[in-house]
Specification:
Layout: H1 2-31, H2 37-45, H3 48-64, H4 68-86, H5 106-146
Helix pairs in contact: 1-2, 1-3, 1-5, 3-4
Family: Belongs to the cornichon family.
InterPro entries: Cornichon
Pfam families: Cornichon
Length: about 150
């Protein structure tokens, strides 16, 4: 059963890595003026809720399966994602607002946040990969001991 948890987490982490790369590419396109702020923000806001849900599911899954270290590692990022989504001011288009993205260095902070999340998800990817291999190896070893 542990192997299934880690395989699902690995797949979810791959999706979050691709999403982080998409955020970085889209924000860098806006920074270089390849796209306008409105289309950039509408593209990014479309993926904020799936990112929050994807990360929250893995965090809750680790809590339920009693993997405390991984749960505590994921908890701050999941909390930050939920906080950022909930604290969107009224009247804004979403987390990424085209009227404010060039103000007060928000573009740089969004880019920095996307880079940090990419690094975090890469760390989690290798951690889940190692845990998956470890679980499958211990399951095979236990099966051989029963023979």
């Amino acid at each position: 059963m542990e192997s299934v948890v880690f395989i699902f987490s690995l797949i979810d982490c791959c999706a979050l890595i691709f999403l982080s790369v998409y955020f970085i590419i889209t924000l860098s396109d806006l920074e270089c003026d390849y796209i306008n702020a409105r289309s950039c923000c509408s593209k990014l806001n479309k993926w904020v809720v799936p990112e929050v849900i994807g990360h929250a599911v893995v965090t809750v899954l680790m809590l339920i399966s009693l993997h405390w270290f991984i749960f505590l590692l994921n908890l701050p990022v999941a909390t930050w994602n939920i906080y950022r989504y909930i604290m969107v001011p009224c009247g804004n288009m979403g987390v990424f607002d085209p009227t404010e993205i060039h103000n007060r260095g928000q573009l740089k902070s969004h880019m920095k946040e996307a880079m940090i999340k990419l690094g975090f998800h890469l760390l989690c990817f290798f951690m889940y990969l190692y845990s998956t291999c470890l679980c499958s190896f211990t399951t095979q070893t236990a099966g051989l001991l029963l023979l």
